[in-house]
Amino acid sequence: MKKESEHLVKVNLPGGVISAGDMYEILIIAEKAEAKHIRLGNRQQLYFTIAAEYLEDLENDMLSAEIAYELDADNYPNILSSYVTDTVFNYENWVKEGVYKDIFDDFNHKPTLKINVVDSNQTFAPFFTGNLNFISSDVSNYWYLYVRFPKTNILYCWPTLVYSDDVAEISRIIEETILSNKDIFYDQAKVNSAFLHKLVTSKGNFVMQPIVQPLRIPDFQLPYYEGFNRYGNKQWLGIYRRDELFAVDFLKDICALCMQTRVGQLYTTPWKSLLIKGIEQKDREQWGLILNKYRINVRHAANELNWQIEDACDYCLDLKKQLVRDFEDADLRTYRLSFAIKKQPKTGLCGSIILKKLEGEFFEIQHTRDFNPNSKDYSVYRQNVAKSDLSEHLIELCNWFYSLKSNINISTSVDEEGSEENVVSTHIVHQCKNCLGIYDENYGDELNGIAPGTPFESLKGYNCPTCDSPKEDFEKVNLAKAIPI
Q1: In this structure, are residues 48 and 68 in contact, taking their beta carbons and an 8 Å threshold?
Q2: How many CB atoms lie within 10 A of CB 302?
Q3: Domain map of the chain by residue range?
Q4: CA 74 to chain centre
Q5: Do 325 and 317 contact (CB within 8 A), yes or no?
Q6: In a 3-state reduction of DSSP, which class is residue 83?
Q7: Distance (Å, whole) CA 38 – CA 47
Q8: What is the CA radius of gyration of the chain?
Q9: Are 146 and 156 a contacting pair, CB within 8 Å?
Q10: Between 4 and 185, the higher pLDDT residue
Q11: 186 in helix, strand or coil?
């Protein structure tokens, strides 16, 4: 967290990728301004802090190097992408390096809305944390577009697929339309999505394809993204820092070795980690020497790597560290789960389980409808939980998740005097017997255009949004909701 006498510098890396040479140039400027560390953001951007006395020199250096940056602001969010997953977490699809680069190069404007460009066959990069979410379809070079209207959780599926060459231009026109009609589309309780579509399509001639198959959201599984890993005849290296601080000297050595060994690019991830691809086996020892020099540990526990917290927030970081220690003490399984801590409203962070800070030191615990972080439907699990009691309730919720996966019923807990700790209400939902995804009438299925309150029995031709199983494969289950008394 920066002090009052400091400035926070943000540099966007479109898609989370930068050449080693360009990164080195940024590091030299940061070092000259006496910055000691670089932080990575949830949207794959860079942050560093400088003392106010170095501001003028930094501004001159950035201008000379033609590096775009923001000072104590985030008016132009970074374009987030799943580019980093290509060849290491995702192998067979039409979304390759050239496709990503062509799309990024087409952006001639600086977006003020959050834009995601992600491959639907991976779960490493989040799907819906942007305002404009382009998600690959099965049709080569065509994308689903989901618009999340600014300052809302209203998600609108564009009625046609969008062509790769049109991604930048349709983004510009949608942003222009929304921002010039804020009273209709910005921070509104209800939005006329069809009207937005009409306005946008009247301003551009876009190549569209009909949507034949609805988007299928894959089951969430976070790949282990640390350490040395082999792919093909090369290796990739993932680096995570518990304190989110990457020493400038360390990164300079990384860049120098990249240029020396002809590794062209560095990748930042939505999990605030750094990834280097294309390491030759003959150079493996040199990379190990750098890790040794800076005492870099690259084997953290999986339950520490599956967290999303706000950028440059020491409060959230300290809370995460404490909860991870508690999870370790409990030897807690968190596979296929992820966690988010939200101190500020409408941060856009995603997680299977969300800790939302309330007034004082109290939190609301939420989870997504099917514990998939790419779901946008939330259920409240506990309200007004004291900070000191978070671990207990999170461990309970994780165990409940695994009971659902193994079809084990959990009974209401009883205290020593025999009284129930919680009031349990009956809540009937329909659960897919194949992937255990849930259709809850209270939430509907906005991704497939099904409004909240739609009875399951009235659905026609419905398929599970996770595994595409037919409606006949759903069973009624009693999803008991424990409500604090």
Answers
A1: no
A2: 13
A3: 90-210, 304-483
A4: 17
A5: no
A6: helix
A7: 6
A8: 23
A9: yes
A10: 185
A11: coil
Could you give the 3-state DSSP secondary structure of residue 318? helix
Instruction: Give the Cα separation of 331 and 325 in Å (integer).
Output: 10
Q: Are strands 155-157 and 142-148 parallel, antiparallel or unpaired?
A: antiparallel
Q: Which of 463, 470, 439 is nearest to 452 (CA)?
A: 439
pTM of model > 0.70:
yes
> What pLDDT, in 10s, does the model give residues 276-308?
999 999 999 999 999 999 999 998 999 999 999
* Contacts of residue 169, Cβ cutoff 8 Å, sequence gap at least 6: 106, 204, 206
Buried b (16+ CB within 10 A) or exposed e, 389-400: ebbebbbbbbeb
Structure tokens at 2: 């920066």
Consecutive H or E run containing 156: strand 155-157
**End-to-end C-alpha distance for the chain, whole angstroms:** 37
Least Cα distance to 189 among 132, 145, 151 occurs for: 151
Q: What is d(CA 139, CA 94) in angstroms, rounded to the nearest whole number? A: 9
Chain centre to alpha carbon of residue 62: 29
Are 120 and 136 a contacting pair, CB within 8 Å? yes
Residues in the chain: 485
Q: Are strands 339-342 and 307-309 parallel, antiparallel or unpaired?
A: parallel
DSSP code at position 79: P
**Residues near 360 by beta carbon (within 8 Å), at least 6 away in sequence:** none
Task: Give one DSSP letter per residue of 255-289, joined into a string.
Answer: HHHHHHTT--EEEE-TTS-EEEEEEEGGGHHHHHH
375 CB neighbour count, 10 Å cutoff: 25
- 381 touches 400 (CB < 8 A): no
367-424, pLDDT tens digit by residue?
Answer: 998 899 998 788 899 999 999 999 999 999 999 999 887 764 444 333 333 333 443 4
Contact between 142 and 164 under an 8 Å Cβ cutoff? The reply is: yes
Q: Which numeric CATH code is attached to 304-483?
A: 3.30.413
Q: How many CB atoms lie within 10 A of CB 365?
A: 20
What amino acid is encoded at 270 in this protein? P
